[in-house]
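help with this.
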Amino acid sequence: MRIAIAGGHGQVARHLSRALTARGDVPVALVRQLQHVGDVVADGAEAVVLDLERANARDVAEAIAGADAVVFAAGAGPGSGIARKDTVDRAAAGLLADGAEQAGVRRYVLVSSMGAGAPPPPGTDEVFAAYLVAKRAAELDLRTRDLDWTILRPGGLTDDEPTGSVRLDDSVPRGSVPRADVAAVLVALLHEPRTAGLALELIGGVVPTDAAVAAVTERAD
């Protein structure tokens, strides 16, 4: 499979590129800055320089032409303010969907966040609340589209070594998960088309990744 990854220089995205390459797939990393090209090429990805905060749908469609799937793994990142939570975590996700529709790429996997399935509770830090609002809006927009979408909501992300085992379901308790395990789940989701239409939460667990994806697929059937 040829898979275009928005936010291709992000930590989860780089794990994803390496995992896809190891499987024999072709990752295409969409990166904002020219200096990021060397890093993602070293991960095994093809690189396309594209700033989703400045691009239009035609730009995106050209960048992802020929892909079998797209993954939105971009984020404004820590330290960014409320405005960029909206322009990246919401608007850029929608723009990738616009581009996918134009390019005829039906498969879309959105990396969202645990907590994005509902409005932020009262008392939530205003920047984090803006992040959750943006992720929720991106999810709601994606659900309206005629795409084969899957939404993945990881818990707290860590740089711990991957375990190869997770807890994946419609709803799971709050917890954390290594970024490399998130990437492994994304690979499994991309290769299981029957996960289209599912919104799933993810934390560390004891079920091997492929078995966890198979289980949610069987329940959906």
Helices lie at 11-23, 37-42, 57-64, 82-103, 126-143, 179-190, 209-220.
